[in-house]
Amino acid sequence: MTTLPDLTLAERIARLEDLEAIRSLDARYCRHLDDGDWDALMDLFTDDGEFDGLSRPRGKAEMREFFAGLAAGGLTTFWHFITNMEIDLDRATVRSFLWQPCVTDGAPAIAAGRYTDEVVKVDGRWRYRVKQVRFHFFGPLEQGWDENLFALETARRAAVRP
Predict the structure, then answer these.
(1) N or C: which end of the chain has fewer CB within 10 A?
(2) pLDDT score, position 157
(3) What does 91-158 look like in DSSP terms, one character per residue?
(4) Any idea what the Cα angle at residue 160 is, between residues 51 and 81, rounded to 5°?
(5) Taking the complete model, does pTM exceed 0.85, yes or no?
(6) Could you tell me if 20 and 85 are in contact, meaning their C-beta atoms sit under 8 angstroms apart?
(7) CA atoms of 140 and 59, how far apart (whole Å)
(8) How many C-beta atoms surround the C-beta of residue 73 within 10 A?
(9) 107-122 and 125-140 beta bridge pairing
(10) DSSP 89
């Protein structure tokens, strides 16, 4: 593992820039997924990238079909929140917690889990080689969640938004 005292100032700055670029990658992933912008979402993956969760599509064509098909499976509205990112540049891995209010079959729900990602720099940009999600909780919002974070009425309104 590389330690900061072993690095030159230029190397430290480059590492900080890489960390920020990876944080931005996750922010764009959430935004593009929530907006249903599948082309922009696929641009965040390598050509042979893989999404490991719910299903295991590989390559941009399979992943695009998978993500676009979520609504057909009843998941019509969702918002991703990622926190507590642990980025290991030496191993090119990212781990983070996920919580996700969503609407499934017209009912407000909540999901929580963890992302474990492998990232790689391609043409100067960080991209996902593997994005893995494992859900630890998924259920109707009425079964309980922290109402200070996710209001039931907000999720209900989202189910019928124009």
Answers:
(1) C
(2) 53
(3) TTEEEEEEEEEEEETTEEEEEEEEEEEEEEEETTEEEEEEEEEEEEEEEEGGG---TTTS-HHHHHHH
(4) 40
(5) no
(6) no
(7) 32
(8) 12
(9) antiparallel
(10) T
Residues 6+ apart with CB under 8 A from 48: 58, 59, 129
- Beta strand pairing call for 125-140 and 45-52: parallel
Token pair recorded at residue 120: 């790689």
Q: Does the pLDDT of residue 123 top 70, yes or no?
A: yes
Count of Cβ atoms closer than 10 Å to residue 92 Cβ: 16
Buried b (16+ CB within 10 A) or exposed e, 94-127: bebebbbbbbbeeebbbbebebbbbbeeeeeebb
Give me the sign of the Cα torsion angle 7, 13, 19, 21. Answer: negative
* Distances, alpha carbon 124 to alpha carbons 18, 20, 39, 43, 46, in Å: 10, 14, 20, 14, 12
Widest CA span of the chain, in angstroms?
55
pLDDT tens-digit series, residues 61-77: 999 999 888 877 777 77
Q: Which residue has the tokens 């540049």?
A: 89
